[in-house]
């Protein structure tokens, strides 16, 4: 396969931003991995990069048994059989979470397959185009911090509210997707105000809006 300079730069950028995303989620990622130059990226993976060689395996900083694997399929069309092979590998190697970084959108049948096994293992899907920039570094995106279960409980008790009374954020929101937020989790968003200084708001992660009866 012929690789242009643009394609090499594209994969270098995608790979770098995926590592930043993992570290922002709390996974153990070394500075040297993120600071890898384009020249060293080529030296490591070759001028004709095979996407599957970019695979990443990481564990959470505070829990080495909580692992994630990032797949970079060579094929630009991923079907049910491909998904099943990823699931089999996740089970064999004890990964409960994975990320697929794809060149093109996933076929509906393959996505259905992912949804069917979501209670056993979680597979997230990103397009390469989504990782050509880091949304967290955008000037208009304030800092987000995922609350622990204990912090969420303390927050609800402090304001004497139920979680359903909190403002909401969809799991499909680009920032929620970046942090890998799941339904029921609460995220703290810190914004700046010229008059009030820093202030925090909280959002409950949901799948979809519930229509009023």
Automatic annotation (TrEMBL):
One of its GO terms (cellular component) is RNA polymerase I complex. It comes from Cuscuta australis. It comes from the Eukaryota. Its main location: nucleus. It holds the Pfam family RNA_pol_Rpb5_C. It is found in: Nucleus. This is DNA-directed RNA polymerases I, II, and III subunit RPABC1. Keywords: Nucleus, Transcription. The lineage of its organism: Eukaryota, Viridiplantae, Streptophyta, Embryophyta, Tracheophyta. One of its GO terms (biological process) is tRNA transcription by RNA polymerase III. Residues 5-90 form the RNA polymerase Rpb5 N-terminal domain. InterPro entries: Arch_Rpo5/euc_Rpb5, RNA_pol_Rpb5_N, RNA_pol_Rpb5_N_sf, RNA_pol_subH/Rpb5_C, RPB5-like_sf. Residues 133-204 form the RNA polymerase subunit H/Rpb5 C-terminal domain. Belongs to the archaeal Rpo5/eukaryotic RPB5 RNA polymerase subunit family. One of its GO terms (molecular function) is DNA-directed RNA polymerase activity.
């Amino acid at each position: 396969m012929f690789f242009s300079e643009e394609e090499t730069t594209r994969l270098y950028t995608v790979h770098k931003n995926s590592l930043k995303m993992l570290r922002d989620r709390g996974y153990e990622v070394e500075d040297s991995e993120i600071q890898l130059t384009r020249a060293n990226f080529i030296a490591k993976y070759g001028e004709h990069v095979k996407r599957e060689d970019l695979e990443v395996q990481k564990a959470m900083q505070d829990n080495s048994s909580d692992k994630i694997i990032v797949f970079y399929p060579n094929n630009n069309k991923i079907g049910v059989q491909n998904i099943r092979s990823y699931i089999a590998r996740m089970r064999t190697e004890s990964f409960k979470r994975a990320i697929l970084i794809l060149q093109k959108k996933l076929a509906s049948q393959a996505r259905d397959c992912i949804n069917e096994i979501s209670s056993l293992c979680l597979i997230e899907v990103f397009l390469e185009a989504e990782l050509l920039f880091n949304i967290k570094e955008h000037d208009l995106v304030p800092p987000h911090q995922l609350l622990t279960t204990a912090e969420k409980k303390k927050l609800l008790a402090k304001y004497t509210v139920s979680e359903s009374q909190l403002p909401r954020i969809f799991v499909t929101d680009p920032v929620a997707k970046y942090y890998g937020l799941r339904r029921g989790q609460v995220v703290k968003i810190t914004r700046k105000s010229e008059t009030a200084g820093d202030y925090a708001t909280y959002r409950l992660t949901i799948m979809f809006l519930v229509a009023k009866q």
